[in-house]
Amino acid sequence: MSATIIDGKAFAADIRSRVAEQVAALKTDHGITPGLAVVLVGSDAASEVYVRSKGRMTVEVGMESFEHRLPEETSEADLLALIAQLNADPAVHGILVQLPLPGHMNSDAVINAIDPTKDVDGFHISNVGLLGTGQKAMVPCTPLGCLMMLREHLGDMSGKEAIVIGRSNIVGKPMAHLLLGESCTVSIAHSRTKDIADVVRRADIVVAAVGRPKMIKGDWIKPGATVIDVGINRVEAEGGKTRLVGDVDFDAAREVAGAITPVPGGVGPMTIACLLANTLTAACRANGLPEPEGLTV
Ligand SMILES: Nc1nc(=O)c2c([nH]1)NC[C@@H]1CN(c3ccc(C(=O)N[C@@H](CCC(=O)O)C(=O)O)cc3)C=[N+]21
Ligand SMILES: [Mg+2]
Q1: Residue 40 is part of which domain span?
Q2: What are phi and psi of 68, to 5 degrees?
Q3: pLDDT at residue number 118
Q4: Which tens digits make up the pLDDT trace of 110-145?
Q5: Where is the Tetrahydrofolate dehydrogenase/cyclohydrolase catalytic domain (predicted)?
Q6: The complex's ipTM?
Q7: Catalytic residue among 118, 119, 121, 229, which?
């Protein structure tokens, strides 16, 4: 039996159209245009691609896009000064500083300088604390996108065994909190986990976020499990080309799983859609308006 393929690309397009509708209403009813500022320090080729597609989709949903490209050698003080300026700018409702930052910067200090109400990545310690205590937070975009796909596909997740593979602050840890919020029994596996295949085999829900191509094998998957593949790994392909593969061995896992997300076209597009949803949420909250429907946790 072959798994249902969860179409993140189509789901993301649907979320963006719902965001666009609510942005239009915000404009006509309240004269507010949500604005998203993206800051890119240095010129990593992959980062350039993401920043461009974020900028394009921001404009497509009717929001204002502010792009700030700073040279690699920018000082941390100069970056902090830009963040202070964006924090104070009423036209900017969301701020995203593209990670990773150059090695000479203290990323924690930079992220924690963002006004937490504008922190659409949900990486500020105050948003991490709010999520960890079950309070209203800005939720990191990738885990939020994964949760939306899981809810759509599974509905009630109460009592299900969930495993998150990877313990990063960006995906693994916030994902585990979100699954706890759905009343799953949650485990986090990582590079030191013993007998990881057996641990994964118990899970009804698998979220793979390790950043290692095809690490999760087909025979690690419990028959019928739902598999969310967060990995976006660029690997060499035939003819000197490159292609994207996930953290899961897709061809093998799809023969066992009940449902699985593809790479590309799974989690990646959902991440960007959730960034736009978070920016809309931030604009609503900043103006004392109700939360957008169906776009927050
Ligand atoms: N502060 C910060 N926040 C981020 O959210 C953030 C970041 N820094 N740094 C870089 C990573 C990476 N990231 C992606 C988003 C969408 C796709 C995406 O849409 N991928 C497409 C394929 C794109 C392609 O072909 O390269 C897909 O999976 O279908 C990929 C990667 C967000 N990141
Ligand atoms: Mg790890």
Answers
A1: 31-117
A2: -120, 110
A3: 98
A4: 999 999 999 999 999 999 999 999 999 999 999 999
A5: 6-121
A6: 0.96
A7: 121
Whether residue 160 lies in the annotated active site: no
Mean pLDDT score, 177-202: 98
**Mean pLDDT to the nearest integer, 38-67:** 94
Same domain? For 104 and 36 the reply is yes
Q: What's the pLDDT score for residue 1? A: 72
Q: What is the CATH number of the domain that holds 71?
A: 3.40.50.10860
Residue with CA closest to ligand 1 atom 31: 268
Indicate the angle between helix axes 267-286 and 141-154, nearest 10 degrees: 110
What are the structure tokens assigned to 24, written together? 């239009």
The answer to whether position 281 is within a domain reads: no
121 annotated active-site: yes
User: What value does the mean pLDDT of the chain take?
Assistant: 97
Strand 233-236, strand 242-245: pairing: antiparallel
Contact 179, 165 (CB under 8 A): no
- Residue 131 domain-assigned (yes or no): no
Ligand 1 pocket, residue 231 CB under 6 Å: no
User: How many CB atoms are located within 10 Å of the residue 279 CB?
Assistant: 29
Nearest C-alpha to atom 1 of ligand 1 is from which residue? 98
User: What distance in angstroms lies between residue 209's CA and the mean position of ligand 2's atoms?
Assistant: 8
In a domain, 136, yes or no: no
Dump pLDDT digits (tens) for 264-277: 999 999 999 999 99
Ion ligand 2 residue ranges (Cβ < 5 Å): 190-191
Q: Is the CB of 50 under 6 A from ligand 1?
A: yes
Q: Is residue 23 part of a domain?
A: no
CA distance 126 to 270: 24
- 9 in helix, strand or coil? helix
Tell me whether residue 168 is annotated as binding. yes
Q: Which two tokens stand for residue 148?
A: 């939306």
Q: Looking at the CA of 169, which ligand is closest?
A: 2
The catalytically annotated residue of 22, 98, 160, 249 is 98
